[in-house]
Queue: 2 jobs
Job 1
Amino acid sequence: MFKRNVIAVLLAASLPLAAHAADSYTIDPPHTFPRFMISHLGFSTMEGRFDKTSGKITLDRAAKTGSVDIAIEAASVSTGFVKRDDHLKSTDFFSAVEFPTITYKSNSVKFKGDAPASIEGNLTLLGVTKPVTLTIDAFNCGADPMDPMKKKQKCGAAASAQFKRSDFGMKTFLPGIGDDIKLVFEVEAFKD
Amino acid sequence: MHELLNNPAVQGGLAPFIAALIVAELFQRMRLSGLAIIAGFAVTVYLASDFSIEPLTASRKIVLLGLLSAGLALPLMLLNPRWLRPLLAVAGGGAAVWVMLRILQQQEMMHMLLWGAGCALYVGWLVFWFDGLNDASVRAGSAGMALGLGGGTAALFGASALLGQFGLALGAAAGAFLLIQMLTNSPLPCGRSYTLPLSFIAGLTGCLAVLTAELPWYVLPVLAVIPVAAKIPLPAKQALWIQSLLLSVVTLACAAGAVYLTWRVTGAPPL
């Protein structure tokens, strides 16, 4: 009986430890840019990015689990041409006034060995939520070399995904402006 | 053929024009030629967008209200109590607030009140004045053409192709409605099936272009002058094509003013 109680107490005590095993990271906005590529009339591939992204990531390498919660400011879309940016912000595309935030949320981070390999999550764009899987092409963690004390831990990753904009109700100028969107997500995040 | 139907000029100009010509002619005997407006608009929605209502965005609310107003106009054509015209104007104002609600909720209180009241006033105004033209088919045709073309071109310059196409579709459909009258020298039956969807869609499109694109707000009062300008006195004995021409010159001048004001701010459209 005493032995069973001790085991129960130890198990109960270990629960908070397990909960704390996941590392929490906050996205570093100046080094985080979701970029997108889209066919322009079949002649070329145009590229754009969002300049304002924020969010949190948690990773538990031991349990091989994690979560992602990212918010992208739709009005921060930038293609290097102001008039096109204005057009992209309008109701024709991102409708940035009506839907100011694009979100990506996941509680399903798949690991390959010690590193995350893919994220199965939900992208919400124009008020429509659809599953989108991000493939993690590169993942690195370590002490931030810019921190003189070398105490700040940072992780960086490159992820990519592909989806159809029409799935989210964005249909303007189809098929001239391509339906397939390639998303490349370069992200850096500081350990909390 | 598929390529042709994907051309934005066909979607927002030629296709609604042809659809409106056919409907205005086909429904003339039933005194429902005014349905030409919603027929032209529906063709553009079908070609350039879709009829789905999920998610119910502001532009989809416009499509929904446009179709509903055309349906509602049919029984309303049989009624003519004095209170109906102001009631329709109030309904137009309410519709404007409902369409813009998600956008307004994200503004600061002062902006929310200003934009909400401004949009309600603009749409209500258009509904009120266009309803006064529902028994004057040549005037309604000229005013509808000018409001559609002016609002559509201004929205296009203001960086919204879809809203631009919505407006241009109305202009093309109203142009077809007017052309038949000019060619046959006889008025078509107009009624609320023409004026109600036209004023709802044009008003809501203009407001949405101001709130979500680059259309300057002061373009809306210029466009609002169009249905009032279409009431200028005309010599009654003149042929219909001359009346149409005179009214079109006056109303299109207002539309041109609106486009010019937009162009001064935005320059050429970003296409």
Job 2
Amino acid sequence: MKSETGKTLIIRFLSSLLTLFLLVSFLFVLIRLSPGNPTDKYISAKLGSELSEKIAEKFSLNQPVAEQYFAFLSNVFQGDMGVSYNYRLPVFEVIWEYFSFTLVFVAISFILQISISILLALWVIKKQKRWLENFFASSSLMVYSIPAFVLGVALIYIFSVSLNLFPISGLKSLDYDNLSFFSKFFDKLHHLVLPLITLTAAGVAMFYRYIKESMDDVLNQTFIVNLKASGVSDKTILKKHVIPNAIRPLISVAGVELGILLGGTLITEVIFSLPGMGRLTIDSILSRDYPLVIGCVFTAGTVMILANFFADIVKLKIDKRLVKGILN
Amino acid sequence: MNIKTLNLFLLSFLFLLIISCDSKKSVSENRIVIGIAADVQSFNSLFAFSYEESAIAEILFPGLSDFKWNEDRGELDAYPMIAKSWQWSDDSSSIKFYLRDDVYWSDGQQLTASDVVFSYDVFSDPEVQSRLFGMFNYLFTDTAGQTDIEKTFNVISPYEFEFHFPENSVPDLVKIVIPIIPEHIFSNLSGDQLASHKSNFNPVSSGAFKFKKWDKNQTIILEADSNSFLFTSEQAAELVFKVVPDYTSRILQLKRGDIDLVELVKVEDMGELKAEGNLTLVTLTGREYDYIGWSNFDSNNPSKPHKLFGSSNVRKALTMAINRKEILDEYLSGQGELAASSVSTIFKSAFNDEVKPYEYNPDEAKRLLALEGWKDENKNGILEKGKTEFKFTMYYPVGNPLREYAAVVIKNNLKAVGIEVTMEKMEMGTFFNNLYERKFDSWIAGFGVPIPLELKPYWYSDPGVGFLNFSSFRNDEADKILDQLETKISKERKNKLIKKFQEIIHLDEPVTFLYWTPNVVAYNNRIKNLNITPYGVLVHCREWKIE
């Protein structure tokens, strides 16, 4: 069984690498075939077109796409994604500065989504009130349907403009450097409350519905009725039987959701002026900074593949019978 | 931990969070916060390509002189900066600069003529690909465009040097002055090393403000440099550029006092901002105009006039058929001005006030079209000439609500005179790429007007020189004038020629000039001594004071 699991994981890993390679190759060709020229912005009445031509020459943009692609592949195998046209720095050096924030931001939001939704589902089940269940069922649907840009702006109007409780934008105060360690922590947290609510709300609503339905399914199983009849306490049934059984299908969804979350930070980052990778990706697309676009997609794709890969490992840990399903 | 305890814990945490961060204004007494839409990528003046980068670079790296906008003449007046004075030779073949001896870089090194010479060398170096590359043709240069230092400069002492110009060169101070960068920081670096050098992100400067801190995509903080020759005790202690990409958020922060100054305020927000009481609004026009481009010649056969827009009468008719004033009044609430050519009223000495914008006159438009043979013979509501119907597609870039509004008005107005237009929006990068490749017959776009006025790149018939002449306008007399403007002539003669040029453009109407679009600047009344002119908003921020 152990060797079968190991083999499954290796095949899964190799197929992930292939997916990543195909993704980057497809993107490379697509972006170069799309209209637009990264050097157009260097043409102006004052500059003329000489600079634009020089820069095109420097970044080999005049060469055929196939030639550019093979040069790109050979660089990638050496761990070099190229130099950003805009920043004139190695792509990963640029990405890292923005990715670190997005990673932490998304991780906090993800943990909040999972923990709040589980706690909420448990609380609603424990209360066993029909109206409460109905209320959360419909309100979760409503929250899930609100677009992030509407929720973000509404939160700013209520909590920042009207009540003056939270800052409108940014990650820290202008006087951040003069604050004590404790105040620095709270200052950042103070700035992140509204963005986190904006990013987390829809996920909480989705996970809540998912977990609640799973828990209801498990609670209706015969073995739960038998356990109850045997005199096992509700607390033990929930802890030892309902939660582990209900949480299993959540893991696959969570892996995908983490990837979606990573791409979904853009709107929150723009509304709250946060220094994340979503903004970097969009800026690089609009300015046709090809190496940076590919670097951003490569990074996001890697995280998504890794998230799914780890979700599979966790699933395997819980239930060995899933080996074939994962491979498929 | 049960749920009740958890709830209690979360509530206490939230309460602590709110009370620990008081809601006092984040803008301290002696700090000016400027809201900007996009972050910079470098502080090196060599690579300051964006508006924000060049604004900050100008603060950090002054040139030999600075300029002030002269409202009366509509020109720039030079005044001393790093150079305390200068003297032209009688035949303008050379200029001698006398530098101040009290100019120091922020790391304590003295700025001398050697830094000046180095700056011209690096800015013109093809390997560096600086933002000024290709602009040194008024100096002695090699075939690659790099300044020939030996022929151009004669360094007499650390504070005295001469520029020598080639025989046919027409130099003026506005062309000559560039930001001076520190030689001791960059001298041993190659082009590639220069682009990624650590000093680009922690610059050594000589201006009234020096670099303090950069939180990427958040804030750029410049602090007063008390060792700078430009420092005054009245200037702000800190200048903060706050990156807020969302327009609504910038405006909310301006109203709340978190930001002191915002540019490009939407006209529809002006009333609300004025009502705040603590904000001043200034409208600048004359630096940017919107136009409808018409291909004057067939793109497949450049010697053949375009089948629809090849005649100046047709182009004039198209202009007369469009109610530009309605767009101006309805969308811009009367802010901005109708345009008659690419020379705006701000250039007072060169502006020809006899050239008036064509009036909205659909009847006259129909008459001119009929004169050119465009008639609705088959009564289907569309004009035709032979077998050709007057139908075309007009392209415009997405993301500009004014142009989107104008597109609807233009389509309806042209329909009323029997012309069918299909409006097509296009992603910005794709749009400009197609424009540069001359792929459109008709489009809506805009141009920024440089100071000092440049006309040749926009209107010269040779596409190599007139690389922004997308409508392929051709007129021998206009070409002659544009050539003459580059020769050694007096200012009066130059202005006369520019006035004549406007007449030619007006008669030919190569494009439909729509309007000069406004740049509305809003700032907090606590900032004093702002001198907002067409030359720029942030250019003299070292002179701003806080009440």
